[in-house]
Automatic annotation (TrEMBL):
The gene is gerKC. The keyword Lipoprotein applies. It comes from Paenibacillus montaniterrae. It comes from the Bacteria. Its main location: membrane. Residues 8-182 form the Spore germination protein N-terminal domain. It is a lipid-anchor. Belongs to the GerABKC lipoprotein family. Residues 209-374 form the Spore germination GerAC-like C-terminal domain. This is Spore germination protein KC. One of its GO terms (biological process) is spore germination.
Amino acid sequence: MILTSCWDRQELNEIAIVVGMGVDKIDDDILLSVQIVNPGNVAAQTAGSLESAPVITYTQRGKSIFEAIRKLTKLSSRKLYYSHLRIVVFSEQVAKEGISPLLDFLARDHELRTDYYVLISRNTEAQHILEITTLMDRIPANKLFSSLETSHWAWAATGKVTIDRLIELIAMEGDEAVLTGIIIKGDMQEGETMENTHRLALRTLLQYDGMAFFKKDKLVGWLNEDASKVYNYIKNSVISSVGVYACPEQEGEMTVEVTDAKSRVKGMVRNNQPKVKVSLNIEVNVGELECSMDLTQEHTLQQIELTLEESFKKVVEDTIAEMQTKYQIDIFGFGEAIHRANPSYWLEHKEEWSELFAKLDVQVDMDFHVRAIGGFNRSVPMQKEE
C-alpha cells in the first residue's frame, strides 16, 4: 500500500500569518514592520469588552528586507508565514530614494505570493499605517485591501497595483508607475489603541488620498483626486465613478454616475513628429439634479452630454498639460503608444522621450452618452414649480 502525505505542511498553531508589511528607512538601514494575525482574538468578542488586539505589529531593523525578516524571529515565537500577505506599504521617504533595490526580495522569494497591493504612506511612516486599529474589518491589512478594491470600483481615484505590475511599470520604456497613497486621518497615537474602535464615530481612520507618480523607481510627486481620476480614465481602469457638474445654461449642479468608460490611446508619427490621440467614451446615468430640467426632452439630454464633454475634456487636457510642462513625466503610457505605432522611431528617440513628451501634441476626443435618467423624468425643482 502506497500512502501519500504533505511533507512541507504548516500547522496553524506553529505559524504566524503575516498580512501586512511596511518598509521605512533609518539612516542607511531598512526598518521593516509586519502585521501578524492574532488568531485567538480575530473573532468578535462580547460587546463592550476591552479585548486584546486582533493583530500584532513587529518591527525590526536590517541592512536588507531579507535580513530584517530573519531578525524578526528574535521577536516571534512562531515561524512567520507570508503566503497571506495583502498589503505592502512603502514610506514616502523610501519611495523618494528609490524602491528598486527593495523590490528584488519581494519578487524573488518563493514564500510570497504576488497578488498583494503596493501602497505609499503619505506624510507618515509605513510602520504607523500598520499600527492603526480598524473596526469593521478587525484585521487592518484586510481592511486596506478591501477598501482599495471598493474605492477603485466605485470612485476611480485609486489604483490597484500588484508587485508584478509595479516591477513591469518601472522597467517599461514609455510609461511610469503610479501608486495609491494612504494617510492617517485623526490622532495617530489614539488610533494605535483598541479604544479607537469602541466609539460610534472613530477618531482615527486610515484613508486613501491621492496617487504617487514615479520617474523610474523614485517618487516625484502626487496627483490630486481629479488628476487621479483622469489617470485612471486614460489607462482604461475606470469601472464606475461619480461626477458633479454645473447644470447647462442655469444655476445649480447635476451629479452623474459613470456606468461604463472606454479609453483608446493611439500613437502616430507625422513628419517625424510624434502625436497622440486619446479617445474617451463614457456612459452615465443622471443621479441627482439641483436645477429645473425636463429629462424627457431629447435636446435636454444633448445639452447635458455637451456640458459633460466640455467640462471633463478641460480637466483631462489640464492634467496632461501639467504633467508635460511641470514634470515632463509620461505617466499615461503615451511613449508606449508611440512605440507600438512606430518601433523604429521609438528606438531612435526613446532616450529623449522626456523632452519630446513635454511638447507632445495630444488630441483629446470626448464622447458622453446619457444612458438612464432614474425614477424621475423631471427634476424635483421643476415638479415643485408645476
